[in-house]
């Protein structure tokens, strides 16, 4: 993990309304109880009255409420400008081999890029661009591109070097590219923070909060269950999921139609199947869930299965609460669980968000 910016760096960014730090940290004002983006246009407080948080979730848990002016919870589907610019460059020339000097030439601090990509994509920027290169190479080889030409276009001086890099990512040599399956993964912004989506060529298989502590474990389980590599990219299923999530957060969609696949243990799959039957806007208790899956004394076990659900929101584990009506647990954070329940009950516009 990479360290967060120093306090002096964060103070300078806040006072300078530096939008390039939006999403990297949040500022919270002790005297008002409000937290903001670094770029907030509001009057800047005295530095001694400011606390800094790496995520909006931590600011919320500390008791701060989001600023109504800069709306730190409302990401509008867009990462910071400098990240958008960098991603656009990667897509413009995905075969490019990036160096720190290339980032500096774009006025982007390599350390900041590493921090942001590691936090939001689960990999450094260099790892992201390398995986993107390999994904493009796989497509070119499948379309009949000569191996040596593809290797040269991707910056490799020999077939052997390219073959080693390709096999490290996909687990198969380039010559067996038609046998290579993989999961494409992309990250989007939402009203409740960044979401990581993953899909095979058959269905969506991952929808997780990018700041979830268990994300690394979830991704490792995904690789093991599918025996596939994960590379940056999109396909028709991630695109359909993005469209449906947009409608969901606008209160226009109550049932997801994107095909999903969620391998697990027989017990986990039984629990996840039952979760999908909970109607929009309704909740059931952990006790009821355990009874419904034929294990009335296994409330803790069904709670664990909920926590290992890799398709948040779509498999609605947020609709399971304690018997007394209290929220209970949620891997994405209780504030997100409350947000989703309020949204489905038609309370989102009147509540905190």
Question: What distinguishing features does this structure have?
Answer:
353 residues; alpha/beta; DNA Methylphosphotriester Repair Domain; Arc Repressor Mutant, subunit A; 4 domains; 4-stranded mixed β-sheet; 11% strand; disordered C terminus
Concise account of the structure shown:
This protein is an alpha/beta fold and 353 residues long. The chain contains 14 helices and ten strands.
Number of helices: 14
Q: Strand percentage, roughly? A: 5-15%
Specify the helix fraction band.
40-55%
- How would the global form be characterised? globular
Regions with pLDDT < 50 over 5+ consecutive residues? 144-148, 154-159, 172-180, 348-353
Rg calculated over all Cα atoms: 22 Å
- What is the annotated CATH architecture of the largest domain? Orthogonal Bundle
Average pLDDT rating: 78
Number of DSSP strand runs: 10
**Secondary-structure content class:** alpha/beta
Largest sheet: 4 strands, mixed
Distance between the termini: 30 Å
Series of H and E elements: HEEEHEHHHHHHEEEHEHHEHHEH
In CATH terms, the superfamily of the largest domain is Homeodomain-like
* Main sheet strand line-up: 3-1-2-4
Describe this structure in words.
The protein is globular and about 60 Å long. It folds into four domains: 7-66, DNA Methylphosphotriester Repair Domain, CATH 3.40.10; 81-180, Homeodomain-like (Arc Repressor Mutant, subunit A, Orthogonal Bundle), CATH 1.10.10.60; 183-249; 266-350, Winged helix-like DNA-binding domain superfamily/Winged helix DNA-binding domain (Arc Repressor Mutant, subunit A, Orthogonal Bundle), CATH 1.10.10.10. 41% of the residues lie in helices and 11% in strands. It has helices at residues 7-15, 56-61, 81-92, 100-105, 110-121, 125-142, 147-153, 159-170, 215-226, 236-249, 266-275, 286-292, 299-307, 334-344, and strands at residues 26-29, 34-36, 50-53, 65-66, 182-188, 195-199, 204-209, 229-232, 284-285, 320-321. The two termini are 30 Å apart. Helix 12 (286-292) crosses helix 13. The protein is an alpha/beta fold. The longest helix is centred in the middle third of the chain and has 18 residues, at 125-142. Residues 144-148, 154-159, 172-180 and 348-353 have low confidence and may be disordered.
């Amino acid at each position: 993990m990479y360290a967060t910016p120093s306090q002096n760096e964060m103070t300078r960014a806040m006072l300078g309304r530096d939008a390039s730090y939006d999403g990297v940290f949040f500022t919270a004002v002790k005297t008002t109880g409000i937290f903001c983006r670094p770029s907030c246009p509001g009057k800047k407080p005295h530095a001694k009255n400011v606390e800094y948080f790496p995520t909006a979730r931590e600011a919320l848990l500390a008791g701060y409420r989001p600023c109504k002016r800069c709306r730190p919870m409302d990401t509008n589907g867009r990462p910071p400008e400098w990240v958008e610019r960098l991603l656009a460059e990667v897509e413009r020339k995905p075969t490019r081999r990036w160096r720190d000097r290339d980032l500096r030439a774009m006025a982007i601090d390599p350390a900041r890029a590493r921090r942001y990509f590691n936090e939001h994509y689960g990999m450094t920027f260099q790892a992201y661009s390398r995986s993107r290169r390999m994904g493009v190479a796989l497509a070119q080889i499948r379309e009949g591109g000569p191996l040596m030409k593809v290797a040269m276009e991707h910056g490799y001086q020999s077939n052997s070097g390219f073959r080693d890099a390709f096999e490290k990512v996909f687990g198969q040599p380039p010559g067996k590219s038609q046998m290579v399956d993989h999961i494409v993964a992309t990250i989007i912004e939402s009203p409740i923070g960044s979401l990581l989506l993953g899909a095979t060529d058959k269905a969506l298989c991952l929808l997780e909060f990018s700041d979830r502590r268990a994300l690394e474990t979830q991704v490792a389980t995904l690789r093991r269950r599918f025996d596939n590599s994960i590379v940056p990219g999109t396909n028709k299923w991630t695109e359909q999921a993005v469209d449906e999530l947009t409608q969901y957060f606008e209160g226009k969609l109550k049932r997801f139609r994107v095909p999903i696949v969620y391998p697990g243990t027989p017990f986990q799959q039984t629990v996840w199947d039952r979760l999908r039957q909970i109607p929009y806007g309704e909740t059931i208790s952990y006790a009821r869930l355990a009874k419904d899956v034929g294990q009335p004394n296994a409330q803790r076990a069904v709670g664990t299965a909920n926590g290992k659900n890799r398709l948040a929101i779509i498999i609605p584990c947020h609709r399971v609460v304690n018997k007394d009506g209290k929220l209970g647990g949620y891997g994405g954070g209780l504030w997100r669980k409350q947000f989703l329940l309020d949204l489905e009950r038609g309370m989102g516009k009147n509540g905190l968000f």
